[in-house]
Fold this sequence. Notes:
Radius of gyration: 24 Å
Number of strands: 20
Strand order of the largest sheet: 14-15-16-13-12-17-18
Number of helices: 15
CATH architecture of the largest domain: 3-Layer(aba) Sandwich
Structural class: alpha/beta
Amino acid sequence: MLIAGKWVEKEEVIEVCNPQDNSLISTVPAASEEDMLLTIEGAKEGAKVAASMPVHQRMNILNKAAAYIDENLGEYAATIALEGSKTIREATAEVKRCIQTLRISAEEARRINGETIPFDQAEGSEDRVGYYYRFPIGIVAAITPFNDPLNLVAHKVGPAIASGNAIIVKPATVTPLSALLLAEAFEKAGLPSKVLSVITGKGSVIGDLLVTHPAIRMVSFTGGLETGEEIARKAGLKKISMELGSNSPVIVLNDADIEKAVESTVSGAFYAVGQNCLGVQRIYIEEDRYETFSSSFVNRVQQYQVGDKMLNTTDMGPMINETEAIRVERWVDEAIAMGARRLTGGKREGAFYPPTVLTDVPPDCTIARQEIFGPVVLLYPVSDLDSAIDQSNDVNYGLQAGIFTSNIDKAFEAIGKMDVGGIMINDSSDYRIDGMPFGGVKGSGLGREGVKFTIQEMTEPKVVSFKLAQKRSV
């Protein structure tokens, strides 16, 4: 692990296994509280160095890191696929997004601007002129999940470096290797020592110290709602940015292009084995098109190739571990026991859980209320758009949504009434680019990610006012 500017090994290690066959890939150090304290002390020095870096140096480092990853794309993609759930095709796409994220970060570094302030708008302040500029907050703690083990780390590291901060990354215990490879890229790019640390270890051992330490000025967390709420209670007086998932809805109206809606929502539901915070979980279809849509949707799902994630022909691999697959199996079985019908899907085999489609799902079962984070989608017939919107909003999440319609008025009705951070028209809920503001409402989180918007979160405005010897003349 990279702590306080040095690569550190320890006798106590955490095994990193391939969820496909549970084979050992590698080991990483199991950090202690002492390791975390050393990391934070190093980051204090790193923050001073980072703040003093001129913008052109930050840009150069970010672009060099992106170029290094591009040159070694195959290694990065294989690491993502081996330690996580993504197929090699999905992993390759993630590496390309990471490269783009770092390049956007380099561009946004030049646009951290302030504004002049007309102080003479206040009577008695005619002799004052000034402005504000944005300055880095200091040390950022980044806690990242397993489902995008490279690009979600880059979404925190890139903006932190662009804005002149030091950052400590605590990656998911099951997928730490991709984050360590990202640190290697920044080391090769010439990032000064101690600006970036990647510390591996169990959250139960080092997590509380990271989020509660007074030197940490911002906690950026991507993960589950319960953990997010716990962090918010413990963190104290510091900035908090959280993306906490969702159970995203998509609405399909009678005037929709059914073929395109099916293709988009199948991909949106089962990408990365459904372990995607934006993944399509609930689909509300107007009654006149319900049978056509559901039949076509199930047929397309049954064509999915599930198997070896390292093959280019595979559409879906295993979940992150067997424990998660058992949880999804339990939620599906509970829904069926309460009256739901399974339209397709089969038996779990280890960490593999097949793409599954349910209908007639009772509103009070777990799978209807919580984030599945697995390869299951729920289909609901609805009488009209109002009913679809009401049901879409009737959960404690609101990250993104989608609606398929050719009626612009209905599209704008959904835009105005759906309680989400983003709505995709004639697209799946899981559409995202790395330059847009990304985040949700209700239990889906606080603040916004996306490079430009993360930089805003990681900086503070400082006001400068000059009192002149005499009133300013125009």
